[in-house]
Write a structure and sequence with these properties.
Blueprint lengths: L1 H20 L3 E6 L7 H16 L4 E6 L11 H6 L5 E5 L22 H21 L2 E8 L3 E5 L6 H4 L3 E4 L2 H10 L2 E4 L5 H6 L5 E5 H6 L8 E4 L6 E7 H5 L3 H35 L3 E4 L2 H22 L1 H14 L2
Parallel strand pairs: 1-2, 1-3, 6-7, 6-8, 9-11
Antiparallel strand pairs: 3-10, 4-10, 5-8, 5-9
Helix pairs in contact: 2-10, 4-12
Protein name: ABC transporter substrate-binding protein
Keywords: Signal
Pfam family, one: DctP
Amino acid sequence: MKKSLVCFFAAAFLLVGASACFAKTKWDMHLNYPANNFHSVGAKEFADKVREATNGELDIRLHPGSSLGFKGPELLRAVAEGQLAIAEIPTGMVEGDAPLMALTAQPFIANTFKEQRKLYELAKPAYAKVQKRFNQFTLYTSLWPFAGIYTQRPVNSAADLNGLKMRVYDGTGLAFGDAAGIAARKMPFSEVYPAMKAGLLDSMYTSSVSGVDAKAWEILKYFTRINIVAPVNLINVNKEAWDKLPKDVQEKVLKVAAEMENNMWDKVAKMDVDSVATLAKNGMTVVEVNPAFRKELDAMGEKLRAKWAKKAGKDAQEILKKYREETGR
């Protein structure tokens, strides 16, 4: 009898131990960019710190380069529907589902990273309201360096933009193209080189970091720093997946996320400086915008933002007004 009881309790102990071993939660995280891109590197740091802080109770598995098969415009819905527990979402790419989300991707709205941080902080409550409708919320954000244009020929005025065949990645790029007389095409990076060789493109709009990732100097000659946008990326989590986590795990994840957001925003200026230096080192001519051209671009941006704000609604209009009051832009 004693032997039977010993066996019974030993078996019960093993079952409890096995249950604890397999109790951790696993999330698959969609990432838009290659594994060596600094946003993906940041996501790996986040996942590693979460795993350590929660003693392995939450394991976030990374899928860089959109390897799970989702495209930018689909991401808000994919998280909302639980197809993804967690995903990196560029604000400018989900405008079709939620126009207000493109607020931080508006053209020529900020001149500095500090101004862009101010804009995001003003937008956070409205972003949270939109995301609540989509069954998700933001854990942390990160920022891209300002986007410029890569071309075969010099661009020193608004007139020089006319006739370019340019790759863009969001609605802001398409609107800019329309206003500037550019034949803009929205396409992923993977399609840029073939399109250039086929003569469908002769330029692209993206950041210094992406230019280095793409080795832009192999096909283009000039990087003109028009600073059209410094896009904000959101790391969003499905609310139902979040609610399944124990409260102590949630608290640990939120602490790591808050630290991560500050780290990612602090890194962006250095990433920009280093990437511009790499472009120049590899033979690309880096061009700063002259004052007359900047004035033309700012006027273009003001018209485009006013048009967008009508579509985006009252919340967007109020945020833009407050931002203008606080920054003078």
